[in-house]
Amino acid sequence: MILAILIPTPYNEQMNMQPKRQVFQNIVRWLVPVAAILAFAAWMYIAPEGALGKLDAIGYAVCHRIDARSFHIGDRQLPLCARCTGEFYAAGIALIFQGFISGKRSRLPSRGIIAVLVLFFLAFGIDGSNSYLYLLKQTSEGALSQIPNLYIPNNTLRLFTGSGMGIALAAVLFPIVNQTLWREQDDRPALEWKSFGILIGLTIILNLLILTDSLFVLYPIAYLSALGTLSLLVIVFAILWIMIMREDNTFTSARQLILPFASGLTLALLMILSIDLLRLQFTGTWSGFPGLTG
User: Which end of the chain is more exposed for a tag (fewer CB within 10 A), N or C?
Assistant: First the structure.
């Protein structure tokens, strides 16, 4: 009996840890918004002037931003290259699309859809590798010049293969996020053939509109692609935060996600800020990497 009192049981240990955890969570609730504001202020300070300049600072952290491989609004290049523009605007559109039609659906797509997504991934990898080889052959001499390209790369292929990859990323990420967040889940596929076909059709139409070089299309796409980039980073860091805090499968409403996603935003901005400063120090320019023009 005395030993039972002196030796804490797992239940007693759990009860003793609850107040400590509550104190820690209260501290975090105050620190995260402050950290988010500071990170946002620092990023706004170093980013180039103007709304598109702020978008450039997002693209600068994830994209080479080579001028010749980008779409342009007049003489001004978009925040991301053609491939990254397609990838991140399509990922953003696909996440919003699934948010409206799928809700809390948490199952991955069917094997048939997964097979199509794999094809999108392979097309992205093949076109990206071929394009990278072409760039290396233009900027350096040696044995690489003897390796033939499969075809001459172009921005149209970069856009379409990039957007296919964006759809693939969102199609896998969305149900995984739902599996991590919600206490009660909808065990249906987040994407089915009908919705998948609508999403592909919408992306093809948007790609064709982008290729018209219309200012009325490129301005919104500049915002969609840059904010799509930021959104993906925020989601990934928010899920990481939730796992670290051991809060997975505890949420019942969207309102409860404010703190985790504020944490994700803070971490995403800190990552972007760090890469921007490092690259700016290394290259001295907000444009593409010096010497890479092909």
Answer: N
